[in-house]
């Protein structure tokens, strides 16, 4: 698997395992352990997903069975920063560690910028956690350019990641350009548009050409753009398929055709309007 080097020198896998909308329970714990057994080294969860306990259970089981060491994993969670104060954000981090059963996270993100700029105080708490050596890196999620500009004016640690909705129908070129200029790695959530992209004619045609699945075409598109991507699946065979995207490459013309699908279509909330309600 390929890695990217973040702006603090930490390496992160280009493809991770996402668990959005997967409920707490034994099925998820087993899926996380299976994903690790299949080769995933990056696991992405969040406070609001309400499944950190099961994710942690799966991680700890994989470690206990000798499938991986903790140092080989890259574990991400996110703070749900609805009007969170500085102190509440520090408490939220501790709570996530307790639920996961881990001593540290590799990446901790602010989940949404909010519409009242409360993200600055929350991010200052992340800076404190980072400066104290309790998390290996910090970043943001769903930030547009003006959110990032405001954050960089008020804080000192440049985010290593901006995790955004990204796929051929929402390429977010302005955000990506700003992030590249400032050394912030872009990460894609919902890379398959909750499965909707799998029916796209162009993607199906490329899948046929390369003898790949439509999902593999989209994930290859992401990594050729240098974007970290975190597909979700509970099916072991698809876990393996989603990692098997390093034995082919899309042409520049094919990448351009996929880019041309961009029409601003979202499958998630708009960060400019999302107010946590």
From TrEMBL:
Its EC number is 1.1.1.-, 1.1.1.283. One of its GO terms (molecular function) is methylglyoxal reductase (NADPH) activity. It comes from the Bacteria. Residues 25-262 form the NADP-dependent oxidoreductase domain. Pfam families: Aldo_ket_red. It is an enzyme of class 1 (oxidoreductase). The keyword Oxidoreductase applies. Keywords: NADP, Oxidoreductase. The keyword NADP applies. Belongs to the aldo/keto reductase family. PANTHER family: 2,5-DIKETO-D-GLUCONIC ACID REDUCTASE, NADP-DEPENDENT OXIDOREDUCTASE DOMAIN-CONTAINING PROTEIN. This is Diketogulonate reductase-like aldo/keto reductase. It comes from Lysinibacillus parviboronicapiens.
């Amino acid at each position: 698997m390929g890695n990217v080097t973040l702006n603090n020198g930490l390496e992160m896998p280009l493809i991770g395992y996402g668990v959005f909308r997967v409920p707490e329970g034994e099925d998820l714990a087993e899926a996380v352990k299976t994903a690790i057994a299949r080769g995933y080294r990056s696991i992405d969860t969040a406070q609001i997903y309400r499944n950190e306990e099961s994710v942690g259970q799966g991680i700890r089981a994989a470690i206990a069975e000798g499938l991986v060491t903790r140092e080989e994993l890259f574990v991400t969670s996110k703070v749900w920063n609805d009007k969170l104060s500085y102190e509440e954000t520090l408490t939220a981090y501790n709570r996530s560690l307790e639920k996961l059963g881990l001593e540290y996270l590799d990446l901790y993100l602010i989940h949404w910028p909010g519409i009242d700029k409360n993200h600055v105080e929350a991010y200052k708490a992340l800076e404190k956690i980072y400066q104290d050596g309790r998390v290996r890196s910090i970043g943001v999620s769903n930030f547009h350019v003006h959110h990032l500009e405001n954050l960089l004016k008020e804080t000192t640690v440049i985010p290593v990641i901006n995790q955004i909705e990204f796929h051929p129908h929402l390429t977010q070129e302005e955000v990506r350009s700003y992030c590249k200029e400032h050394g912030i790695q872009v990460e894609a959530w919902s890379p398959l548009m909750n499965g909707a992209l799998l029916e796209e004619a162009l993607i199906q045609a490329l899948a046929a050409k390369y003898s790949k699945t439509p999902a593999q075409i989209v994930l290859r598109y992401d990594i050729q753009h240098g974007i970290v991507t975190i597909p979700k699946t509970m099916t072991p065979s698809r876990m393996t398929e989603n990692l098997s995207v390093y034995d082919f490459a899309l042409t520049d013309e094919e990448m351009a055709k996929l880019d041309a699908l961009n029409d601003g279509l979202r499958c998630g909330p708009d960060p400019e309007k999302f107010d946590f309600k």
